[in-house]
Amino acid sequence: MKHRFFRFAVVVFSTMMFFSCSKPSPKNRSIEYMNQEAAWKILCPGMGSIGIINNNEIDVYYLNEKRIWILDRVSSFVIPEENSGILALGLGIIGVIESDLMNFYYLDAENLWKKEYTMQFVMPSEYDRIFPVKFSWEVGVIGVEKDGIVDFYYLDEKLIWRKDETASFVVPMNIDDYFSVGSMVMAVVSDKKLGFYYLKDDSNWEFLENFVLKLPDQYEAVIQYEQNIIGVLNEGKIKFYEVDFNDNEWIVDETMNFHLPF
Question: What is the value of pTM for the model shown?
Answer without folding.
Answer: 0.87
